[in-house]
Design brief:
The complex is a heterodimer of chains A (379) and B (252). Chain A has 379 residues and is mainly α. Helix content of chain A is 36%, strand content 1%. Chain A has helices at 11-29, 33-39, 72-83, 85-88, 96-99, 147-150, 152-156, 165-174, 178-186, 196-208, 216-221, 230-240, 287-291, 323-332, 351-362, 367-371, and strands at residues 268-269, 300-301. In chain A, α12 packs across α15 (351-362). Chain B has 252 residues and is mainly beta. Chain B has one domain (28-251). Chain B starts with a helix and ends with a strand. The model of chain B is unreliable at 1-24 (pLDDT under 50). Classes of the chains: A mainly alpha (379), B mainly beta (252). The interface between A and B is large, with 53 and 60 residues. Chain A: It is found in: Cell envelope.
Amino acid sequence: MNFAERIPMTRPAFLLGLFLLFLAIGCREEPGGSTVVDEGTITGPNTPTPYALEVPDYFPAPVVDPENPLSEEGIELGRHLFYDASIFSTEGNMSCATCHQQELAFTDGFGRAIGVRGEPGPRSAMSLVNLAFNPNGFNWDGGEGKLWEQAIHPVENMLELDNDWQEVIRKLREHGDYPARFRAAFGIDKVEEIDPELTVKALAQFERTIISADSKFDRVVYKNTDFFTELEQLGADSLFFVENVPPGTLHPGCGHCHNAPQFGDNKFHNNGITDVETINDFVDKGRGDITGNPFDNGKFRTPTLRNIALTAPYMHDGRFETLEEVIDDYAAGGHGVENEDPNITGFSLTEREKAALLAFLHTLTDEALLTDPRLSDPK
Amino acid sequence: MKHLLPLLLFLPLSGCLDDDDLLEPLRESPVTVAFRAEYDEAPLAIQREAYAYPTGDSLKVLLFQYYVSDLELLPAGGGEAVRLADIDLIRWMSATEDATVERTYSVPAGSYRGLRFGLGVKPELNAIDPSEFAANYVLNENEFWGEQTRYVFAKIEANALLEADGRYDTGLSYHMGSDSLYTTVTFDRTFTVDGSGVPTLTVVADVLEALSGTGQTFDITDPQKQTVHGGNQAVATGIWNRLAGQFTLETE
């Protein structure tokens, strides 16, 4: 019910870009004539098997994308693409998985993601869990409306994967294995039909299957198969969640924006981490660059805290190395910038309380995710 | 249970089909229900405007939202109310938003004597966990405190300037709700829906009147009264009651 957010300003430009891209790639192959078309015929199975996401009953139903229904073959193709460095980078040394590593809950361990040239980009690689439950746009600034549109960008962005879509598509069409996989996933008949859109849709199908729902928190709270320690319980009940905030007390209030079970509201907030004189002075304007509205400067999408113990460094620019630093910064209560979220109030914690909040954050780690064979490199 | 949502949406429809006059198909016409937010009787400007507050301080509003349940039109003849929506979240949270948000519904043509809604999440929905709905449904975990305290019916959030330092750095955050606070708001107003033009009914809510009205001013300078969350609603009961009592309806 959030009207202005629905139409990011960059959207028309993006769609135009996408359109021109498809056009350009389409044109290239055209002059070949009928012989090329015949040579490009793909054989093999062409009926994708519909796939229903396995969602635990304590999660909401995923947001559906009618433009990109899931199929077993589409997911499998996406998984191959996700891990394939030979397709996505010029030097063959970088894939999506370089920055989104399964053992780190699909992050990279760096503060700011390192591009092919070894230089850090502006932002931190995001964890890719539970993307199917985000209704609010992707990336730190929510600038990508659909998951499949999001993947166009890392391929083009020099600082992420330094390759050009025309080159990627050429490699896919000439590949010994991919054309049959595209046919199986999307029912296409000709290699010419392999295009950026189908490629990113397959990637998105795989990404939607990355569901993290088996942390200690889930086992204690939803499955009743485990118990919190005293410290974890203290962290949950009286520090993290906001069901019982005594009136007039300064409370960490993490649950306002990081409520269970997703632990990230996907809304845009200035959570008070940046000290600027005015709202025009943010180095990374975040949401403001998308909406063009200065009051959105310095706002970022609240990410999930699932697996947070594994995804350091923290925040959109990786400014904090540890969770202790994160807690200390929230405790300081922001910098009085006028668009800071009113729920960032500052608070003081005893050593024991701080240990309790940390202990609670560690219960959000889902060990099974890190080795789930369905999500690992298919090779 | 994942299918509850489609079911809920379907129920009101099938309800209509049960009507006795099934053979006479009802003529449907559009009607617009608008919600306007104000501060001190002027359209609410999120973030952009510094508003004077009766304690002598000033504040900038960052968020104002409330749920409405069972939004209904009341037929003049006294028949069954016409249900427009089971649940909706009315929200202002961005400086680029208009102070008025609109919804258009299709209703049987005829004369009506009023409009009615429940402020908050009606008890039967308040009992249903967010996990029973889709992640992008109006009832979701981000508006939910937890097992015991359930959904947040309304939120008012602002940054206040309390010292003479020019900084809007005192957060005010009032999150309200509980089954016992659920309140029905009814407007008696006659209007006709006949297909000649789209009648617009505008529900107006004034943030200032919720904080300070009917001779009472909520003291935002008192550190004990700057945040209200979860099960500790006592401090905010006055705000809630004023909010529920101040709605007005405009028709055109």
